[in-house]
Amino acid sequence: MESSNLKDPEDLRICQIIDANLDRAREGLRVLEDWARFGLGKADLVLIIKNLRQILGKNHLEIYKRSRNHLEDKCKGLSHEEQLKRKTSEEIISSNSARVQEALRVIEEFSRPHNHKLSRIASKIRYEIYSLEVELLNFNKYKNLENIIKENNLYVITDQRENLIKIIEDILIGGVKIIQYRFKTGNDADHLEKAIKLKTLCKKYNSLFIVNDRVDIALASNSDGLHLGQDDLDVKTARSLLGNKKIIGKTANNEIDISKAIEDGCDYIGIGPVFKSATKKDKQPLGLERVQELTKDIKVPWFAIGGINKNNISVLKKYNIKKVALVSDLMNAKDPRKKAIMLNKELSNENNN
After folding, report:
1. Residues of the domain holding 263
2. Of 73, 168, 209, 288, which has fewest CB within 10 angstroms of its CB?
3. Per-residue confidence at 353, pLDDT binned at 50, 70, 90?
4. Which of 181, 175, 234 lies closest to 206, judged by CA?
C-alpha cells in the first residue's frame, strides 16, 4: 500500500484480501498461458498473458505478502462441485478467465483507497481479459476443427436429393466426421434452410460442417468452414470474409494451384479427379501416379477426390493415399450408416496393407 498503517487491523485485512486475489489472478493467468503455449501453440498470446502476469507480479508488494498470516483463513481449501465438472478446454479457458476477472475486481476495489496505481492496473487488465478470453476460445475452436481435418480420413460431399437430411444423419451415425454441403441448382432460401439443419446435425455428432463455394450460405448457417473450387474466390479473400476461426479448403490439380492455396493459408486441399468422376464428367482424371507426384511434399492435409469408392480404396492405399472424399458411393448406398462404418474401417490403420 502506498500509505497505510500496518498496526491498523482493517488495513491488514485489506492487505490479506489483495494478496490472496493477486495470487488467484496470477494462477488463473498461468493456466491460460500454459494452454495458449502447449494446447494452441500461439506464441503471440503466450507473450501477452505472460506480460500481464509479470505486471501483477511486480505490483505484488511485500506488504501484501507479509499480511498472509495476520488472520487464519478458516475457509482455506473450500471448493465447489462445479469445479469437478470442467472437462473441456473451453470450460477451463472460461472458468480461469472468470477467476482472473473476479480477482482483479476485488483488487481494484480494495486497493483504490490506498494504492491507486494497483487499482488502475487491475481495472485495465480486467478489461483486457474479456477480449483475451474471446480470442482464446475462438482459436481453440479453430484448433478443434483443424484436428478433425487432420485426424479423419473420410470426407463426404453431398449431392441434391429429397431425403438428404436423413441420409446425412445415417452417415454421421456411421462415424463420418466431415460433411461438405454441395448444391448447384435450386433457390437460396431452401439451400440455407438445409444448411442450418445440416449444421445442427453435425454439431450433434461432433462433426465438421463445410459449405461448398458459397460464402454467404456459410456465414448465414454458421458453418465450420468453406470449400472453394478452382474457379471460386481465392483463399485470402474468403479468409477476410470468414475470419480466422473457420476452416477453408481448396480444390487444386496442379503444382501452381497447390502452392498458391498453401501460401494463401488454406487448411486442407482436395486433389483430383483421381479417377473418372460422375460429378466432374468434363475433367480428365489425374491418375494415381500423378496424384502421388503432386502431393509428395505437401505439408497440409489433403484429400483425394473423384471416382473413389470402396472397390478402389485398397489401390489408393498402395500409393500412400490415406484421405479420400466421396460423393456417389455413400450418397447412393442402400445403407449409408453401414457403408460409412465399412469405409472408415477400410481407411483406418488397422486395415492398411
Report:
1. 152-351
2. 73
3. very low
4. 175
